[in-house]
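Q: what sequence does this backbone want?
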C-alpha cells in the first residue's frame, strides 16, 4: 500500500471542515472595535474604528472612526491641575493605571447603535493594533462592558483557531508567589483553588488533569489541593532527591534557558506527556515598554534570598510551544502584582497563536466570569462569552456561540505542503493521529505531537505577517486576514522551522528506542 502524506493531510482537512460544518450554529459577523496609537508631531492620539456587523450595509465611514488624545487616558493626579474633563494635561507615565476617558463609552454606544445587525447578545471584539503602548491595561472590559450591556473580548492577531485534543485536557499549573516570609499562605491557596475549580468544572473532556508545580517553600501549603483525584501536586524536594534538578539544556546544542531549573523539572515529571493549557499564578516585573513574568531562580531553593529571574515573552513562547499548549492563563499571586501581571499577559497574547486569559482570583465580582471563560475555552461546544470587570480574554471567535466561524483552514494547507518532511521520521500510527488530531480522540499523545502543531501554527503566523502589507497586521482588517495569508510557499525560514520539528521528533524516537 502506497502512503501519500500529502493526500492524508488534505483528507484530514476536508474531514475536519465537514465535521465543523455539520455542527456549526447560525453565526453573526463580528463587531470589531480597532484601537490604534498614532504618533504625530507634537501630539499622540488614539484612533478608534468600529466595523463589522453587516459589511454589506451602507454606513458613514467618518461616523465609525474617531480620535482621542492619549493624555485623556490618564487619571488626573490629586495634587496637579487637570483639564476641564478631569484628566491630567500630560502623557501617561510608565506604570500608570490608565482609564477610559469620560464620554468614550457613550461614543462607542452611539456608533454601535448605527451598526446594522450588531445584536446586544453578541460580544464586542476589541482589536488592539500594535504598537499600542500600555493601552492593553485599560479596563476596556469593565467600562465598555457595563456601558454597552454586552461582553467585551479581545481579538487575537492569529486568524485561525489552534488545534486541540477534543477528549484530553492536561493542565500544568505553576504557582510561584516568591518567598513565604511576608506572604499570605491562605490567600495564595485560595487563589490557586479558585482556578482549579473553574478549570475542572469548565472542562467537558473525559481526561482532564491538573499538575501543580511550586517551590519547596510552598509545597506544604498547596499539597492539600491533591485531595481532588484529578489534581496532583508535585514535590520539588522529591525531584531534588531523585536528581532532577539540572539546569542544563536537555537537547544538545540548544541554548540555555533562564527558566531551565523549572522547565527541566516539569518536563522530567511529565515524562513526555503533552500539555494543553499552562496556568501561571505568579509575579511580574515592569519594564518601560511592558512587563515580564518573574520566577524564582529555582523551585528547589528556599529562603528569602532566592533570586528572581525575568521570563521574557520569547522564552515563554518557546516553553509553551515545546509543551504543546494552546491556552495560557495568568493570575497575580498577590494584590500588589495585579497591574504588572496584567501588562505581561496582554503583551504575551500577541506573541503566539492560542488563547490567553488574565484574571484576578481575588475579584469576587469576576468569579462567574472566570467560570464562564474556562467553560468557553475547555468545553467541547461553543459557549457564552464572559463579562469580566478585572480581567480579559484573547480567543478565536470560533470559541464563542453566535460568532462567525471561518472554515478555511490555512494551517492544514501548510501541513499538507510540508507533510513529506515529517512523514519519514514518524511511525504510521502517529502520522494518522497527527493528521486527524482536530477530529478524533487520542488514547496516548506524546508531547512532541502537540509541540509540532504549535510550531507549525507559529510558522503560519509568521508567514501571514510576511504576506501582509505591514508585519504587525495593523492595516489588515479581520475579514482580510485569510486573503492576506494566501497560498503559502515554503521558504528557507519555514523549512528551518520544520527541520527543527523534525529534530525534536528524531530525539524523541531515539530516547524511546523507536529507530
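A:
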Amino acid at each position: 500500500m502506497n502512503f501519500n502524506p500529502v493526500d492524508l493531510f488534505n483528507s484530514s482537512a476536508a474531514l475536519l471542515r465537514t465535521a465543523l460544518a455539520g455542527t456549526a450554529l447560525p453565526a453573526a459577523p463580528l463587531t470589531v472595535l480597532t484601537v490604534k496609537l498614532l504618533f504625530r508631531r507634537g501630539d499622540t492620539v488614539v484612533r478608534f474604528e468600529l466595523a463589522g456587523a453587516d459589511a454589506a450595509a451602507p454606513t458613514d465611514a467618518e461616523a465609525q472612526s474617531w480620535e482621542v488624545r492619549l493624555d485623556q487616558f490618564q487619571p488626573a493626579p490629586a495634587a496637579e491641575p487637570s483639564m476641564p474633563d478631569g484628566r491630567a494635561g500630560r502623557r501617561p507615565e510608565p506604570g500608570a493605571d490608565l482609564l477610559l476617558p469620560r464620554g468614550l463609552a457613550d461614543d462607542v454606544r452611539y456608533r454601535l447603535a448605527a451598526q446594522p445587525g450588531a445584536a446586544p447578545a453578541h460580544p464586542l471584539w476589541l482589536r488592539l493594533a500594535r504598537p499600542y503602548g500600555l493601552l492593553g491595561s485599560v479596563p476596556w472590559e469593565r467600562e465598555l462592558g457595563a456601558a454597552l450591556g454586552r461582553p467585551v473580548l479581545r481579538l487575537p492577531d492569529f486568524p485561525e483557531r489552534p488545534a486541540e485534543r477534543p477528549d484530553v485536557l492536561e493542565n500544568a499549573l505553576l504557582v510561584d508567589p516568591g518567598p513565604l516570609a511576608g506572604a499570605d499562605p491562605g490567600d495564595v491557596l485560595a487563589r490557586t483553588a479558585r482556578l482549579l475549580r473553574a478549570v475542572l468544572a469548565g472542562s467537558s473532556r473525559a481526561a482532564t488533569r491538573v499538575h501543580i508545580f511550586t517551590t519547596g517553600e510552598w509545597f506544604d501549603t498547596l499539597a492539600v489541593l491533591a485531595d481532588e483525584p484529578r489534581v496532583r501536586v508535585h514535590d520539588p524536594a522529591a525531584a531534588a532527591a531523585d536528581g532532577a534538578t539540572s539546569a542544563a539544556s536537555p537537547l544538545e546544542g540548544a541554548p540555555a534557558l533562564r527558566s531551565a531549573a523549572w522547565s527541566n523539572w516539569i518536563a522530567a515529571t511529565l515524562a513526555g506527556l503533552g500539555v494543553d493549557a499552562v496556568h501561571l499564578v505568579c509575579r511580574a516585573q515592569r519594564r518601560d515598554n511592558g512587563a515580564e513574568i518573574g520566577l524564582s531562580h529555582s523551585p528547589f531553593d528556599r529562603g528569602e534570598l532566592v533570586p528572581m529571574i525575568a521570563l521574557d515573552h520569547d522564552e515563554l513562547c518557546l516553553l509553551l510551544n515545546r509543551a504543546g499548549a494552546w491556552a495560557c492563563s495568568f493570575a497575580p499571586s498577590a494584590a500588589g502584582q495585579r497591574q504588572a501581571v496584567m501588562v505581561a499577559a496582554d503583551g504575551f497574547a500577541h506573541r503566539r497563536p492560542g488563547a490567553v486569559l488574565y484574571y484576578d482570583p481575588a475579584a469576587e465580582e469576576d468569579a462567574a466570569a472566570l467560570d464562564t471563560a474556562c467553560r468557553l475555552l475547555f468545553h467541547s461546544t461553543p459557549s457564552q462569552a464572559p463579562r469580566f470587570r478585572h480581567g480579559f480574554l484573547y480567543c478565536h471567535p470560533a470559541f464563542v456561540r453566535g460568532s462567525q466561524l471561518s472554515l478555511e483552514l490555512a494551517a492544514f494547507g501548510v501541513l499538507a505542503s510540508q507533510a513529506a518532511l515529517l512523514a519519514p521520521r514518524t511511525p504510521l500510527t502517529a502520522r494518522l493521529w497527527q493528521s486527524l488530531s482536530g477530529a478524533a480522540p487520542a488514547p496516548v499523545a506524546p508531547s512532541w505531537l502537540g509541540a509540532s502543531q504549535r510550531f507549525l501554527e507559529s510558522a503560519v503566523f509568521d508567514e501571514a505577517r510576511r504576506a501582509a502589507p505591514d508585519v504587525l497586521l495593523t492595516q489588515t482588517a479581520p475579514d482580510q486576514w485569510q486573503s492576506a495569508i494566501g497560498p503559502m510557499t515554503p521558504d528557507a525560514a519555514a523549512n528551518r522551522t520544520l527541520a527543527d520539528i523534525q529534530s525534536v521528533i528524531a530525539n524523541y524516537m531515539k530516547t524511546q528506542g523507536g529507530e
